[in-house]
Amino acid sequence: MCYCIVTRGNCQDILTNTTKDSSLNLTPKQIESYTTSIDKKAASISKQVEKANTKALKDLQQQEEKLQKKLAKVDSNLAKQLFEPAKQQFANLNNKIAKQKSTTDKLQNLAGGNKEYLPLLDTFNTSLKFLDGKLGDIGSLKNQTTKALASVKGLEDELKNAADIKAYIKQRKEAIQAIFTQNGMVKDLQGLNKQAYYYGQQINEYKQLLKDPKKLEERAIVELTKSSLFKDFMQRNSQLASLFSVPANYGTPQALAGLQTRASVNQLLQARLGNITSIGSSNTASGAGGNPQQYLQQQVQTAQSELNKLKDQINKAGGSSSDLEMPDFKPNTQKTKRFLDRLEYGLDVQTAKQNSLFPVTSDIGLTVGYKLNDKSTIGVGVSYKMGWGSGFNNIKLTSEGIGLRSFVDMKLKGSLLISGGYEQNYMQRFGSIGELYNLPQTAWRQSALLGLTKKIIITKKKSTKIQVLYDFLNQQNHVPSPPILFRVGWGM
Prior knowledge:
Layout: E1 2-7, E2 10-16, H1 28-72, H2 76-98, H3 103-107, H4 119-134, H5 139-182, H6 190-208, H7 215-225, H8 228-237, H9 239-243, H10 262-274, H11 282-290, H12 292-317, E3 343-353, E4 359-371, E5 376-391, E6 394-413, E7 416-426, E8 444-457, E9 463-471, E10 484-491
Antiparallel strand pairs: 1-2, 3-4, 3-10, 4-5, 5-6, 6-7, 7-8, 8-9, 9-10
Helix pairs in contact: 1-2, 1-5, 1-6, 4-5, 4-8, 5-6, 10-11, 11-12
């Protein structure tokens, strides 16, 4: 039986086999979508990492120039010995990165080479190599797969650059810290410490993008893993396989020859743990000597408990990365996020009623905020005042005004925020947008607001806000406005 990928009426044989799981259940459209998605993702992240790498070196060089001037005031000869050799290293490093050489060529003389294992990136790389080998000369599909492979390779290079730069920064930081500590200048290192910490966190942000595959990528990977062909290819050609080499006869009884059996391991444990019975209490002795597996299990559980405690401490410190560095300052977790990731979008509604049941107008506001840090957000917005008519018997939608907003939110305690803002509102009915051009300043009603916001988290990205605001300018307009504003909003 022939299992194949059908493309434009052609059949590309990948295996002649009667085993169902040897087939590759991916259509040409799925393969194209998968490779295109990986290509775009890898190219985008690679560009961001490259930009972060270049900026990190520039910032580090500027920090070292400042520190050299400070140390020179204390000991000029020591300052030259510590900082002058690094200038040539920076020049060489920047030149090599600019020339886009291989990762090994870029940093091998500085950091010795560092590479972190990222499972999804390994899967992308190996799956593309697998598809590239099975597609033969199938036109654009083959070209797209090759292009995606090149993008993944470029991303691998940039991530290795980042690992090497981090190692180099750590090396320089330790050397500088040792000298400055000896000379009582520890406080002068705060800028260097911040730069090193935020660079590491920024690279971790980019790595997180590789831990969240898109749905179409997930579906393609699931289909690939159903194929024994791909499983075998993955076992022999992935990065993980290079770290843990697979024997040539893997999966056969011959591969187990010479390995210890469970019975022999139990015998050895019984003999070794029997020596422990002479130490400690009689209960421990009988437990260890009588049942070595139970004794070992108890020890493993104890170790696991201690390990969980350490993990909790790391998570409370702000992360779980293997290269987590504890900062000596309170970090701003927003600083390393992309601009778009620091934006918050909101919708709020404020209603004025004629009686207890029917609203006269509703102000619908749209806002966008920028998170300065974990506690403060600034933003702008617009509002539209919609009229509903005079009652249930006379419902009529009209445009009763528009508004421009600016605001600041600052976390007070828990989910309670202090909110302030400045707004200008046009409070007259209009029939078209053209009527709003060239309005006199007196046509706008001004508001200076201050109050409290209660934020209720619904999901990780969605929340509800309840606001109570006081208008300090309510009496200064031609037509006085209500002093207290009550708004309900939604954010994401």
